[in-house]
Amino acid sequence: MRSERTPVSRTILVIEDDRDIARLLEMHLRDAGYTVTVTGDGIAGLRAASARSFDLILLDLILPGMDGLELCRKLRERPDYTPILMLTARSADIDRILGLETGADDYLAKPFNIRELLARVKALFRRVEALRSGEGLPGSGVIRAGEMTIDPEGRRVTVRGQPVSLTAKEFDLLAEFARHPGKVYSRARLLDVVWGLGYEGYEHTVNSHINRLREKIEKDPSRPRYVLTVRGVGYKFADREDLKKG
Question: Could you give the percent of the chain with pLDDT greater than 90?
């Protein structure tokens, strides 16, 4: 009996300098039905990612030529969005936090179980498909708040008529807030809703993303109009009364 394959072959770029691990990843990903490209250093990885689009990038943290964090930053500066699963041999929380803050969608520490890696890959694809289709998102129509317009389906944001370029997580944060104006979120709750389960203890990541989001959407980030801080609790999106005050 043939093993189950993905209906449409998705493309995955593996950037890993350990040849044994790279071969292992390539073998199992191909067996799962994915089309795989492998590079062994950061510069080659960036070149490959720039030459064509991929559905997912598996990115090692420690690489020759350009490390994974720097490569992740460069990838997230581009307008197109590709999910990134970061692989790291380090166990320190700071390395995982840095990976998430630079734009990685998920991380997996070495040594890892190949079944867990394949499960993470499938979960990322499901999450991307759900976001693109608007599945499970209440009020997926265009949202207008003050001088801001948010199009959840097209994943576009304009402020005062000007387009705003957001990373995937910045957009997810903003959309979650804007769909529930006035609702107060703790940092832990935002981790669950936007990042998913398994990120307990990484509240600082939420702060960093909100700071960057404010830099892009607020006229004066030091006096935010849209994403407001609720002291001692967390954050909320401005409701009508808040916008009137602003």
Answer: 43
Phi, psi of 107 (to 5 degrees): -140, 155
Average pLDDT of the chain to the nearest whole number: 84
Q: In the prediction, which pLDDT does 213 show?
A: 93
Residue 138 within any structural domain of the chain: no
DSSP string, the chain: -PPP--SS--EEEEE-S-HHHHHHHHHHHHHTT-EEEEESSHHHHHHHHHHS--SEEEEESS-SSS-HHHHHHHHHTSSS---EEEEES---HHHHHHHHHTT-SEEEESS--HHHHHHHHHHHHHHHHHHHHTTT-TT-S-EEETTEEEETTTTEEEETTEEE---HHHHHHHHHHHHSTT-EEEHHHHIIIII-TT-TT-HHHHHHHHHHHHHHH-SSTTS-SSEEEETTTEEEE--HHHHHH-
Q: How far is residue 101's CA from residue 103's CA, in Å, rounded to a whole number? A: 5
Distance CA 67, CA 18 (A): 14
Q: What is the CATH number of the domain that holds 187?
A: 1.10.10.10
Does residue 106 share a domain with residue 21?
A: yes
- Residues 38 and 110 grouped into a single domain: yes
Do 65 and 119 lie in one domain? The reply is yes
- The reported pTM is 0.64
132 with 172: CB under 8 angstroms? Answer: no
- Please give the single-letter amino acid code of residue 80: D
87, 61 contact by CB (below 8 A): yes
